[in-house]
Amino acid sequence: MAESANAPVKQEPVDAVNLESRILELCMEFPKGLTDAIIQNSMPQFDAQQRVTAINRLLSTGQVDLLKSSTGLVYKLKDSAAVSKVKGSDHQERLVYQIIEAAENKGIWIRDIRFKSNLLLTQVNKILKNLESKKLIKAVKSVAASKKKVYMLYNLEPDRTVTGGAWYSDQDFESEFVEVLNQQCFKFLEQKAALARDSKADPMAQKNAAYTSSSDVWKYISELGISKVQLSIADIETILDTLIYDGKVERTVVAAAAGGDADAGQLKLYRAISPLIQPTGLMKTPCGVCPVIKDCYEGGAVSPSTCIYMKEWLDY
Amino acid sequence: MSSSATRLCFLILKERYGEVVASVACCLAKKNYCPLRMLSQDSGLKLDQVKKALCTLIQHNLVTFQQNKKGFIEYVIHAEKVLQQTRFPRYIYCAKTLYGDPAELIIEELLQHGQMTLEKVVQRTIDRLTEAMEGKQNVSSTLVKEKFVNLVQTHFVQRCTSPDGNVENKEVASMPVLSVSPEELYVVPKMELDGFESRKRKRSGEGSEAASKRIKTDESESSESSIFWRVNVSRFHQYLRDQAIVQAVASKIDKNAAEVVRAMLRLSEVKTDEGALVASAMTVTEVFQNLPREFGISKQTIEQYMKLLSEDSSEFVSKVSDSGGGMYVINFKKLITVLCRAHIESAVQERFGSKCFRIFRLLLMKKNLEQKQIEEYAMIPSKEAKELLYRMFEEKFVSLTEVPKTPDHAPSRTFYLFSVNINQVSRMLLERCYQACGNLIIRREHETKENRRLLDKQQRVDAITASMEQSGADPSQKEEIEQMITPPEKAQLTKIKHMTNKIEHSELQLDDTIFILQTYLQYAHMK
Ligand code: SF4
C-alpha cells in the first residue's frame, strides 16, 4: 500500500518548497501585486491544485497577503521584515528539511536531527515547529517507544516499524483485532478440512484438499470486510503463523505454478489439523489446575482433606 | 527420590498393606541399601514386624536383597514399582481386551498376590469364574491354562527368580541366590501343566480334606511346583505405549491410519527386541498382510497412509529405504517425545490458557527467544506477554538464560533468552502428578473415614441379606433388614459411591500423564 503511493509523493514536498520560495521571489519582483496568471506563466510545471496549496500555505503562515486590485486578486508580500527573517533562517531550515527528508518514511528522532545539523536544541525546535506549521513535515509517534516522536515529510505514509503496521492504531496494539482474525482464519481452514474429510476421497487427496494458500485465506478475509485497514498477504501470513503456534494449523511450502501470486516461486499452504491428544489427565484433577498446590499438605492451611476445590469438584 | 514420590509410595503402600509395611518401605527408600537391623532401628519397629513387612514387600516384587562386601544382607526397594501399583487396573483391563475374562482374572490374581504358582492361579481363576457365572456353567481348566500359557508366551507373565539349586556348599551361603535363566523366563514347563492335571486328578480322588497332605506330596513329587509366576510390567508398559501411539494417530489422522499403525506395532512385537527404541523395518506388503481383512483397506491405500504417516509433522513412521516398495520403521523414542511434548503443552494450555500455550509452543519451535521476539511472533502485546512469560517462568515451565554482551554483565547489555527444557519440565510435572495422586488418595481415605459408620452398617446389612438369600429366607424378612438403611442414609451412600468412583477414575486418568512422562524420561536416558 505504501509503495504504490510513494512515487508521486516523494517529489512533491521538494517542489512545494521550491514553489513557495519561487512565489515569494515573484512577489518581490512584482511589488505592486502578483496575479495568479503570472505565477501560472512563470511556472507552468505546477498544476492549479499545487498552486492553490502553496498559496494557501503562504497565506496561513502570514507571508503573503491577498489583496483586491483593479486587475482582480493579487498577492503581495506581507511584511518585508518578516520575510527577511524567514530568508535568514532559510538555509538552516533547508538543512533540517533535508535531514528529515533523508530519513524517508522511517522518520528521524529530534536528537539525531540535532547531531546531524549541529544546531542548538532551541533552534531545531523552532525550525521543526516552523516546518510543521507549514505542513511540510509531521511528527509521528513511534510504537517502538511510546514517548518517542519521529519526524518525516508531511506526505509520507509512516513505515510499519514506526506505526507497527496493520496491528496498531495510535501505537496501541490491537490484540482483539488480531484474535478475531486468528479465529476467522482458523474457521476458514477448518471448514475446508471438514469438506475434505467428508469428500470420502483417498486419504492423500483428502489431505491435499484441506490445504489452502495464504492468498486464498487473504481473499476470504478481505471479502469478509472485518478489517478497516487494508491487509496484505504478508499480514495474513503473520496471523496464520500464530495459528501454527496455537497447534491448530500446519504449513507446507510448495513450488508455485508459473505466474502464481507468491514471491520467489514459493506457495505457502496451510491446513487445519486435529490435536494429538485429549487434555492430559493431570489437568482433569483439581490439583492439576490448583493455584495453591505449592502450599498444600496434610495439616497445612490448605490440605487435601479440607480442600474446597476438591469438594466443589466432587459435588459436581 | 523426591519427597512427593516418597509420600505417594507411603500412601499407596499404606492403603494396600498397612501402615507398618509403608513405614518400613519409606525408611528403606531413604537409605537405598539397608540391612535389617538398621531398618528396625530407623523405623522404630520391632525386628519381627520389619521382617514381616519385608516379606510382604518381597512377595510383591517391591524389595530385593543382596549381600554386600562385608557379608551383610542388604535390602533395596524399587520405588518405581511401588508407584506403578496405581496402574494395576490398567494392566487388568489390557489383559481383558487382549485375551478375555479368564486372562483378566489371571492377571488380577497375580497382581494381588505378587507371586503365585501356576496351580494356584488357575484354581483361583476357575473358582472366581464359576462364581461369576453362578455355577451355571463349568469352567474348563484347559481354557484357563491355555490363556495362562498365552500370557506367558506373549511375555505378559514371567517366571520369578528362584533359589539356584546348583549353588555349591549351600551351608556357607547365608543368602539364597535368586536367579532364572533367560531361556526359561517365558517358558511354561510341560511338566507344570501336566503335573497340575495329575495333581488335580489325585485331589479330586482324595477329596479336599487332605489339603495339607497334598502340598507335601507335591513337593516330593516334582520340583516344578516351586516355580512362581508374576506379571511382567514392562511388557504391559510396552502395550500401553503402543496404545497411546495408536490413539494419537487416530486423533490426528483417522481411524484407518490408526489401524495401519496398530498392524505395524503388532508386527514389531514379533520382530523387535523388547526394550528397543526403534521397531525393525517392515515393508508395506508385510503391513498389508498383517491387517485384518475386515478393514477392507487396499494395499494401495496403505501405501498412501504410509506416506501420510511419514509426512506428518509428528512423523509417526519413518521411511528408511526404498527397497521392496519402501521399508518403514516406528521410532518409539521420537514418538514418545512427541507425545510427552503434547502432554506438557496440554498442561500449559489448561493451567495458563491459550495465550501461554501459544508462547510455550513458539519457544519449543524456535528454541531461544528474546521477549521482544516472542511478542512479535505470538502477536501478543508487550505488557501481556511479559506477564504470561513470567507466570510460566515462576512455575518453572520456561527457563531464562542470560547472555551478556560485555564481561561486566550489565543488564542493559545482556540478552535475556527464554527457552523450554522438556526434560526439566517433564520432571517437574511428574512431581506434580505424584503430589496430585497423593492428594486424591488422601481425599478418598478421608471421605471413607468420615462415613465409616455408615459404610460398616451397609456392609453388615449386605452380609445379612446375602446369608438370608442363601438360606432361602422369606423376602419380606429380607426387606425388613434392608430397610434398616434409611432413605437419607441411602442417598448419602450413593453420594459416597459417586465420589469414590470419581476419584478413582481421576487417578486412572492421572496415570495417563504419569505413564507418558515416566516413559519419556526413561527413554531419554537410553541411547
Ligand atoms: S488438594 Fe486442593 S488445595 Fe491441595 S493441591 Fe489439590 S486442589 Fe489444590
From TrEMBL, chain A:
GO BP terms: transcription by RNA polymerase III
Domain of life of the organism in this record?
Answer: Eukaryota
- Specify whether Phosphoprotein is a keyword of the entry: no
The principal location of this protein is nucleus
Per the record, GO CC terms?
cytoplasm; nucleoplasm; RNA polymerase III complex
Compartments, as annotated in UniProt: Nucleus
UniProtKB keywords: DNA-directed RNA polymerase, Nucleus, Transcription
Question: What is known about what this protein does?
Answer: DNA-dependent RNA polymerase catalyzes the transcription of DNA into RNA using the four ribonucleoside triphosphates as substrates. Specific peripheric component of RNA polymerase III which synthesizes small RNAs, such as 5S rRNA and tRNAs.
Database matches in PANTHER family: RNA POLYMERASE III DNA DIRECTED , 39KD SUBUNIT-RELATED
Q: Which family does it belong to?
A: Belongs to the eukaryotic RPC34/RPC39 RNA polymerase subunit family.
> How is this protein named in the record?
DNA-directed RNA polymerase III subunit RPC6
Q: Which organism is it from?
A: Lingula anatina
From TrEMBL, chain B:
Q: Which GO terms describe its molecular function?
A: single-stranded DNA binding
Note the InterPro entries from the entry: POLR3C_WHD, RNA_pol_III_RPC82-rel_HTH, RNA_pol_III_Rpc82_C, RPC3, WH-like_DNA-bd_sf, WH_DNA-bd_sf
Underlying gene: LOC106175868
Function per UniProt: DNA-dependent RNA polymerase catalyzes the transcription of DNA into RNA using the four ribonucleoside triphosphates as substrates. Specific core component of RNA polymerase III which synthesizes small RNAs, such as 5S rRNA and tRNAs.
Q: Which GO terms describe its biological process?
A: DNA-templated transcription
The residues covered by the RNA polymerase III Rpc82 C -terminal domain are 146-339
Give the organism the record lists.
Answer: Lingula anatina
Q: Which PANTHER family match?
A: DNA-DIRECTED RNA POLYMERASE III SUBUNIT RPC3, RNA POLYMERASE III DNA DIRECTED -RELATED
Q: How does it assemble?
A: Component of the RNA polymerase III (Pol III) complex consisting of 17 subunits.
Q: Where is this region: Disordered?
A: 198-217
Q: What is this protein called?
A: DNA-directed RNA polymerase III subunit RPC3
A Pfam family that this protein carries is: WHD_POLR3C
What does the organism's lineage look like at the top?
A: Eukaryota, Metazoa, Spiralia, Lophotrochozoa, Brachiopoda
**Annotated ranges, domain RNA polymerase III subunit RPC82-related helix-turn-helix:** 8-67
Q: Where would you find this protein in the cell?
A: Nucleus
Mind listing the UniProt keywords for this protein, alphabetically? Answer: DNA-directed RNA polymerase, Nucleus, Transcription
